[in-house]
Design a protein that fits this description.
With 114 residues, the chain is α+β, with helices and mostly antiparallel strands. The protein has helices at 15-29, 59-67, 69-78, 98-113; strands at 2-8, 35-42, 50-56, 86-91. A four-stranded antiparallel beta sheet has the order 2-3-1-4. The longest helix is centred in the last third of the chain and has 16 residues, at 98-113.
Length: 114
């Protein structure tokens, strides 16, 4: 699984435009083959950055998406940033859920008993 992160610090009067662009991309991207999920998140407090995340089954599907005209909309949104956005891609070979939390917490509980 590959997760693509884009964190944008918007020009103050361009925030709404960025959200609108990313929403239009999200709607179409979530229906693409290989897309597991995508979302838009807003940070509150200092800076109020926008985080756009895509999750892909494999790099082939993600690369095809990056080469598409649809991805140009994301690049247009990035152009509305007040400074260089943070963009990175993280590949995971395993996915763990609640089982990891339970294992770590039970291990921690065992250590506390000693």
């Amino acid at each position: 699984m590959i997760i693509a992160f884009i964190r944008i610090d918007p020009i103050p009067d361009k925030r709404k435009a960025i959200i609108e662009i990313l929403t239009s991309v999200k709607t179409v991207t979530s229906l693409k083959v290989g897309c597991i999920n995508c979302g838009i998140y807003e940070e509150y407090g200092n800076g109020q950055k926008i985080l756009y995340i895509e999750m892909w089954h494999n790099s082939e599907d993600m690369y095809q998406h990056i080469r598409s005209n649809l991805y140009l909309r994301i690049l247009n949104a990035v152009e509305l940033a007040s400074k260089q956005p943070e963009i990175y891609f993280q590949e995971y070979s395993e996915k763990e859920g609640i089982e990891l939390i339970e294992a770590v917490r039970s291990d921690n509980a065992a250590k506390q008993e000693v």
